[in-house]
């Protein structure tokens, strides 16, 4: 198996598991796997996608950077995820604090299927307990 084949297999496995864990059809994971590979290669750790049960990717999401601390030592929360307007199908995407939830409602209404927001770390970092495409099992 070539390194290219291993990478493809790796992202298909992580996408399949992520879709299963979100209650979507894991057999329809090809588009998510392709997105995951592209995001990983580009280092887009602050990205995610809204995906429906049939495997369609509806929009890419972006988590804005965490604001700088104010010196008080208090934990500063991350701002809410945003919809990338260039990827939203038609019109202006929802925005504000609940943008992703509102976008998921729109997609659920349009598609009639379950919907999930799947983020970078779920499909690009091996969080499901698998090694990456270039790693080997240690003996």
Topology:
Elements: H1 3-21, H2 30-42, E1 47-52, E2 57-62, E3 82-83, H3 99-111, E4 115-119, H4 120-124
Report on the architecture of this protein.
By secondary structure, the protein is an alpha+beta fold. The protein has one domain. It contains four helices and four strands, in the order ααβββαβα. A hairpin with a 4-residue loop joins strand 1 and strand 2. Helix 1 packs across helix 2. The longest helix has 19 residues. The two termini are 19 Å apart.
List keywords for this structure.
single chain, alpha+beta, 4 helices, 14% strand
Give a short overview.
The protein is built from four helices and four strands, in the order ααβββαβα. With 139 residues, it is α+β, with helices and mostly antiparallel strands.
What order do the helices and strands follow? HHEEEHEH
Radius of gyration: 16 Å
Distance separating the two termini: 19 Å
> Beta-sheet strand percentage?
5-15%
Largest sheet: 4 strands, antiparallel
- Fraction of residues in H or I helices: 25-40%
Widest sheet, order of strands: 3-2-1-4
